[in-house]
TrEMBL record:
Name by which UniProt lists this protein: IucC family-domain-containing protein
Limits of the Aerobactin siderophore biosynthesis IucA/IucC N-terminal domain: 246-449
Single Gene Ontology MF annotation: acid-amino acid ligase activity
Record-linked Pfam families: FhuF, IucA_IucC
InterPro entries noted in UniProt: Aerobactin_biosyn_IucA/IucC_N, IucA/IucC-like_C, LucA/IucC-like
Gene Ontology terms: biological process: siderophore biosynthetic process
Residue ranges annotated for the Aerobactin siderophore biosynthesis IucA/IucC-like C-terminal domain, each copy included: 506-646
Lineage of producing organism: Eukaryota, Fungi, Fungi incertae sedis, Zoopagomycota, Kickxellomycotina
Amino acid sequence: MVNPRTATHSPLAVLVTAVASTPPSIPSNDRATTPTTAPNATSSLDRALHATLSRLVACLVNEKLVAAGLITLAACQKPAAALSLDAATSPTSSSNVIPALRRILVLGPYNSHEASLEQSTQFPDAHQIQYALSIVHSPICGPPCPIQEEEQSWALGDSHAYDASWAPVRFLDPDECESPVFTYTEKETAVPMTSVRALMHSVAKWNNFSLEIIDSICNEMASSVAHQAYAYDHPGPTPTLTSPSLEWEHSVVEGHATHPMHKARYALPPLAPVSVDEDLKRVTLHLATAPRTQLQIRGEFEQQLRPLIKLCGISDHILDELDHDDRVIFPIHARQIPNVVARFSYVQLLPYTVAATAQASMRSVVPDLMPTHVLKLPLGIKVSSALRTITPWTTFIGPGLPPVLEKLKLNRAVSTAIREESSIVAIHADTNEAKHLACLIRETATTALQRRGNHGSPIPLPELTTDGVAVCAALAERSPLGTGTPNVTRIWQLHTEAQRLAFLTDFTEKYLDAVLPPVLHNGFAFEAHQQNTLLRYDSVSGALKGFLVRDFGGIKVLQSKLRASTGITMEALPDGCAEALDLQEVYKLAYHTMFQMMLHRMVRALELHYNGKGWAVVRQCLRQRLPRQSDLYHLWLESPWVDYKCFVTMKIDGLYRDYLYTKVPNLILYQGESAGVASSATDVPALVTRDNSGDITSTS
């Protein structure tokens, strides 16, 4: 606890003093390789709280649910009696000298009807500020302005050992946040936050949100903290080039990089709560039957599942009897049985079980007895954005998509779609009920590659023996977490900046070739974020070969554009979210998944964000693939503002199928920490130039 020096000090003065005089207890991810504290100096619970709080703060700032400003303190050559700053940030500093630079993020209410903190270039009313934390790198900000000496005196105390400036924050990433987050109390003190609830209650007050909804969301974030803490103490395997694909899936410790419910395992009744030590990687499936008339069946579901059923010990005689009774056998996740029993009286459980291994998504499992396929099953558990059930729209789209996939403009040398081959779902007037009973069968990565390999030709299994397949979410994870380098840097031995730039260029070129052409030519966007996209590489040399894309429940398609370019349309149920109203909906999803979620995390993992060089690579790769006069070129390479998906606002509004967006700076145009975002790509010099042969000739 930090007390104000005088009773007349404002909340801003108290908070800034508290942050400036407290060493960060948990370094940001960006400093994980050179931590300011020993690896075991903080508890796993503290680190987990930071993981959730940093994501929450970033969401609140970017979604404009709070106003945010950056105060930068630059040291003069004088001792600072009023502010005892973190000596650990500079090996030569003493406890009474301000480090060369200290950045402090301050938060207050956002008022869209007046000159708010986010919009204003004036120093804010110090009494608006309620929260503050240390920032390790500058976020993307508006124009800075100096804090005048008289303002420093009443806002920051009487020390003049620093120059202070202020800037409104336009875009914040969780990696930029350090712990702890301080809150101002009624006792005129600043104390570190120990949960998300106080901050969320302030957000509710400032935005007139329902406290009941806010408390429900806080419960989900508390679940995220608890499960993240356990994951820190019990991390998965440390992957290598030779790791099997499931080992890569299980190496994901933090998961979603920007969602504050990233590790939530929040079960809703009648399901029992998920304990932190419950094993959701190795699971049991129960076989059950239901009348055929109660199920919508897509594809050859029964034929595909029959080998698994027979391996469970169900005889042909019993199967024939079931067929005669016109019933269908299907698996249910053991965790989902209470939901099925409570909702569907016609379902009959059978005395047969199947062991299975979950992928990164807990509802997608590979049966031990059928390793060639993945079963996607509903679970009444909330993770990040939604309840992890499966809607009738999702079970309908996937099995009907192969004809469309065959006609999409795809670079088959580097792009493989993992097909969803068949499905069932309960027939019910209320889709919120139907989504609790479903099963979707899709290929594994290996099965998909055998079916369709390079240039559309099947790859024989012997030729796949040196192929590695890694879920892209695992590439940016750190092993051992908190003290190690990202997996991608460690495994591919990217020790120098030149090596990291070369890897990023290869990665970006192949990724864009794999997923961009359908967006540009067909009005079709895969949901190609880190969990849905798999990197294919040579497990001996590490050479990148291409990407696989899975999970079609979140695609966006403009049917008129698809028909004009391919001659066919996508089969879809009415009122689904996959059909876009216009191309802008397709482009929004593509930008969110491709750049904000995939390439942004890769650029940061390779330490190429704050120097701007990673985004220069992305711009160059885009220039080579987008026609200069295309809408996408203007939207992605010339527009300084883009749409940003609002995770927290969507949770508050109860949305998961419909998306809400706000405007944020365009990361593609990011030039580096000191320069921010350019007004267009033409203002940014290319990092890499090529001669007519395509060889790299120079960098700038």
